[in-house]
Automatic annotation (TrEMBL):
<dbReference type="InterPro" id="IPR011701">
    <property type="entry name" value="MFS"/>
</dbReference>
<feature type="transmembrane region" description="Helical">
    <location>
        <begin position="144"/>
        <end position="165"/>
    </location>
</feature>
<dbReference type="GO" id="GO:0022857">
    <property type="term" value="F:transmembrane transporter activity"/>
</dbReference>
<feature type="transmembrane region" description="Helical">
    <location>
        <begin position="171"/>
        <end position="193"/>
    </location>
</feature>
<keyword id="KW-0812">Transmembrane</keyword>
<feature type="transmembrane region" description="Helical">
    <location>
        <begin position="275"/>
        <end position="298"/>
    </location>
</feature>
<keyword id="KW-1133">Transmembrane helix</keyword>
<dbReference type="Pfam" id="PF07690">
    <property type="entry name" value="MFS_1"/>
</dbReference>
<feature type="transmembrane region" description="Helical">
    <location>
        <begin position="205"/>
        <end position="224"/>
    </location>
</feature>
<dbReference type="InterPro" id="IPR020846">
    <property type="entry name" value="MFS_dom"/>
</dbReference>
<dbReference type="InterPro" id="IPR036259">
    <property type="entry name" value="MFS_trans_sf"/>
</dbReference>
<feature type="transmembrane region" description="Helical">
    <location>
        <begin position="84"/>
        <end position="103"/>
    </location>
</feature>
<feature type="transmembrane region" description="Helical">
    <location>
        <begin position="459"/>
        <end position="478"/>
    </location>
</feature>
<feature type="transmembrane region" description="Helical">
    <location>
        <begin position="310"/>
        <end position="327"/>
    </location>
</feature>
<feature type="domain" description="Major facilitator superfamily (MFS) profile">
    <location>
        <begin position="18"/>
        <end position="482"/>
    </location>
</feature>
<feature type="transmembrane region" description="Helical">
    <location>
        <begin position="109"/>
        <end position="132"/>
    </location>
</feature>
<feature type="transmembrane region" description="Helical">
    <location>
        <begin position="20"/>
        <end position="41"/>
    </location>
</feature>
Length: 501
């Protein structure tokens, strides 16, 4: 093992160029979660679909993406990360072309689901390529800092791009815009990215595992979506949650028995990685909730145009970039991850606390500090989270460990949208019932806006609580030291036994 070990640790001379294309592909995937949001009212008008269908345009993507990510991660480990990356890009571009050309609702929903399927191949392949290409601790911190900033800021960039394209071209361009992104990333992947030969997984694919986890996650997310429409006590909502629990428990049992599991339990049983997946999932619930309600608030109450709405989120993106590249990346090799993640989530939650105070007449300058704190906190926390998620994993599991990060983010995002929408809906109804006397003496339009703002502020209070919980989870579960001690061997074949702690 003496010589081969040092060979595997020779860094790829083109790794920094490769990072540009990997980050570009990641930007395209993250962007797609929000770029279509701002365009939805226009698409709805054009294709004539119902209100209830609107959220399915968002959910179809999140469902396909979130439920197939583990499968995508395992495919990357088995089939090669570079090849999976290129196939994902080609498929994503094709699905985007289909969405842009949609002539009816089912074609649009089908295209969104297909984007999710190919995104599920693309995202884990991108992250695991980074994990195997950057072997030096300090360099790795820098690479993950850039990647983390893209992953975090992509959603807000999506809102700006969505606003600009919708306002100046038309909603179809929120789909077509992916094609040039994908073309550049494909060219880069073919010319620049070469995957280290180490750590390919030669086992067969675990089909029962794929079916159980996919149907389990679909039931879980769909359960939250049903709760928003039909209420928590609805029999089909309860049925979906029970089905999700049964399927996911069955998945865990199958994974502990089969020879080549889809998700080796050793990947999540490690308390550090488990802590990252759990706290990140919770944090994303809070973040997605913020995007959703502030977008509705800015466009519906403050009457911002789509483009202005997108730009209003820029200070948050700036905060994220500073948080991940200047704070997270610089401190990551000096302090243990929990001392970056837990305070990061707490700072972000303080931003949400400021935003719970919104009112019908709130000015942008009152919202601004909340956005900046949210960005700084999330950027600082995302940074070590992305790195720790694949830390100490055997190379043959790099793809599936990367997929778990994306899974916790996507499932968190989908659950967050549905859960917080339900909270907002019931808060709005309660407000209308309890303020009936005031309604008689208030201008009806103003009263409706007050009810709306009250419902958003309620949902943001919940997001605040969930973020505090994410901080506590990160602090309690994550106990890894500074990564530099392990960086040397972290990606050598089996160099770090996963359960070493």
């Amino acid at each position: 093992m003496g010589t081969s070990m040092s060979d595997t640790l020779q860094p790829d001379p083109r790794r920094w160029k490769a990072l540009v294309f990997i980050a570009l592909a990641q930007l395209m995937v993250v962007l797609d979660a929000t770029v279509v949001n701002i365009a939805l009212p226009h698409a709805k008008q054009d294709l004539g679909f119902a209100d209830s269908t609107t959220q399915w345009v968002i959910t179809a993507y999140a469902l396909a993406f979130g439920s197939l990510l583990l499968f995508g991660g395992r495919v990357a480990d088995l089939w090669g990360r570079r090849r999976t990356f290129i196939v994902g890009l080609v498929g994503f571009a094709a699905a985007s072309a289909l969405g842009g050309a949609a002539v009816n609702t089912s074609m649009l929903l089908g295209a969104r689901a297909l984007q999710g399927v190919f995104g599920a191949l693309l995202a884990p392949a991108a992250l695991s390529l980074l994990a195997v290409m950057f072997t030096d601790g300090k360099e790795r911190a820098k690479a993950f800092g850039i990647y983390g900033a893209v992953a975090g800021g992509g959603g807000a960039i999506g809102l700006i791009l969505g606003g600009a394209l919708t306002e100046y071209l038309n909603w179809r361009w929120t789909f077509y815009v992916n094609i040039p992104f994908a073309a550049v990333a494909i060219a880069g992947a073919v010319l620049v990215i070469s995957e280290p030969a180490v750590g390919r997984n030669r086992n067969r694919l675990d089909i029962p595992g794929v079916l159980l986890v996919t149907t389990g996650l679909v039931s879980l997310v769909y359960g939250f979506t049903r709760a928003e429409q039909e209420g928590w006590g609805d029999s089909s909502t309860i049925g979906l949650f029970i089905a999700a629990a049964v399927l996911l428990v069955a998945f865990a049992v199958v994974e502990s028995k089969v020879k080549a599991p889809l998700l080796p339990l050793r990947v999540v049983a490690d308390r550090n990685r488990g802590g990252v997946y759990l706290s990140l999932g919770m944090a994303v619930i809070g973040m997605f909730g913020l995007f959703l309600f502030l977008t509705l608030y800015m466009q519906g109450v403050l009457e911002y145009k789509p483009l202005v709405n997108g730009f209003a989120f820029l200070p948050m993106v700036a905060g994220m970039i500073i948080g991940s590249t200047q704070i997270g990346a610089r401190l990551m090799t000096r302090v243990p991850a929990r001392y970056l993640m837990a305070p990061g989530f707490v700072v972000a939650s303080l931003g949400l606390l400021i935003l719970t105070q919104i009112d019908v007449g709130t000015s942008y300058w009152q919202i601004l500090p909340g956005l900046v704190l949210m960005g700084l906190g999330m950027g600082t926390a995302f940074m070590p989270a992305m790195s720790l998620a694949t830390y100490g994993v055997q190379p043959r599991d790099a793809g599936v460990a990367s997929a778990m990060v994306n899974t916790s983010q996507q499932v968190g995002g989908a659950i967050g949208t549905a859960l917080l929408s339900t909270v907002a809906h019931s808060a709005g109804t309660k407000y209308l019932e309890s303020h009936q006397a005031a309604a008689a003496t208030t201008d009806p339009k103003l009263f409706a806006l007050q009810a709306q703002v009250n419902s958003y502020s309620h949902a943001i209070w919940w997001a605040f609580g969930i973020l505090i919980l994410a901080g506590v989870t990160a602090f309690v579960l994550i106990n890894a030291g500074k990564p530099e001690h392990h960086a040397e061997g972290a990606d050598a074949e089996d160099a770090v036994p996963v359960m070493a702690h």
